[in-house]
Amino acid sequence: MPLLLLAALAVAYLAYVVYQYRRFLQCSAAEARGDLAGAIRAMRALLRAPGIPFAARAKPWARLQLANLLFERGDYADCVREGGAIAALPRRPGLQALAHIVVGNALAAENRLDDALGHGRQALEILGVHRLRALGATGRERDLPFPQAALAHALLAQVFARRGDFDMALAEGNAALELDSDSASARLLLGDIARYRGEWKEAMRHYDRVGIAGPRPPEASPIRGVWLQRQALAHLSKALTQAAQEDFPAALTELQEALSVGARHPAILAYVHLRLAAVLAALGDRRRSRHQLEVAKEFCAALPDHREVQAYRCYNEGLVLAAEDDRKTAVERLQEAIRLVPSGLDLPELYYELGRLQRALGETEPARRSLTRAAEMTPVGEYSRRSRRLLEEESA
């Protein structure tokens, strides 16, 4: 009888583990097809299930995954709550550090830069105290940094860049690359800083390195989705660099490459289709431009709380309207974009384009305020320089 009872318990235990694993696969499948809401529902269901010894240790990682999904969807307050609970766990340094990084990214997106900086530094402090031990070539033990340290430095680089402290941003970005030369987040950010400063070749060099970082993962690989997202972002970033130089045919090619990669993340697809609309409008193809806006709206509708996506929608709609000579409505869309995202590397560009449109409408004083705002943000920014030239022309 005891043997039969033990066998029954073992069968029930295995059935429960299989059931939980199927829920995890449901979450992964939803995320892979770009259904962030479905992935979040599946992960919440997984976390609500009763705990068992096997699952108890895995649940904090699942909760961290939930925090990351919430961040990707733009639910920053929920992300901070879920990630903060994981960051408080004792004796799990790698997990704690990742939680601080996820929370820091969410806080940076909310423009809470001091809090984000604090979480990035806490992550590095945790990882500095708890070092990995490994055998070197001589057979002796040696200290190694946790792999999460590169992500922490990339977070700090992002925060400093948003503050306009580019020397510190570059130092932190390069520190991330020293730890992980294939760090896509560091490469993309360093490329963005170079693009912001008008250093086009340097920007393209970093974006190209993202494109060649590591082999393409197989279809069933759990990291395939992230790899595809990074490839799409690299093509998008190259398109932004070319558009800034008014090389719209080259930008169009890169955006088409971004779509051909096969990434399904709704935010990335929204960014690509929105920029496609603006580039096609600049090339005079109004019909295709309008079609791309309609496609982008579907992805934007799936992320109603994602402020950066909604701001990017307003900005690119403004560019399309400006190309169609509807400057008054274009000004309203750019002002809405600035209201949604009060910090970031793209802000001088927004104020510059807003000032140009206001100038074309004969709104001299508002145009001067917008261009002055862009010019004063940083002396090294490309759009700050362009704004100063327009102000100098006006005063002359």
Query: Helix and strand succession?
Result: HHHHHHHEEHHHHHHHHHHHHH
Provide the β-strand percentage band.
Answer: under 5%
Number of separate strands = 2
Count of DSSP-assigned helices: 20
**Average pLDDT number:** 83
Strand count, sense and closure of the main sheet? Answer: 2 strands, antiparallel
Radius of gyration: 23 Å
Q: What's the short story on this structure?
A:
The chain contains 20 helices and two strands. It is an all-alpha fold. Strand 1 and strand 2 form a beta hairpin.
Write the layout of secondary structure elements.
Layout: H1 2-32, H2 36-48, H3 53-56, H4 59-73, H5 76-87, H6 93-109, H7 113-129, E1 132-135, E2 141-144, H8 148-163, H9 166-179, H10 184-196, H11 200-211, H12 224-244, H13 248-260, H14 266-282, H15 286-301, H16 307-323, H17 327-340, H18 347-360, H19 364-377, H20 382-395
Antiparallel strand pairs: 1-2
Helix pairs in contact: 1-2, 2-4, 4-5, 4-6, 5-6, 6-7, 6-8, 7-8, 8-9, 8-10, 9-10, 10-11, 10-12, 11-12, 12-13, 12-14, 13-14, 14-15, 14-16, 15-16, 16-17, 17-18, 18-19, 18-20, 19-20
Structure description:
The protein is mainly alpha-helical. The chain has 20 helices and two strands. The protein has a two-stranded antiparallel sheet. The longest helix has 31 residues, at 2-32.
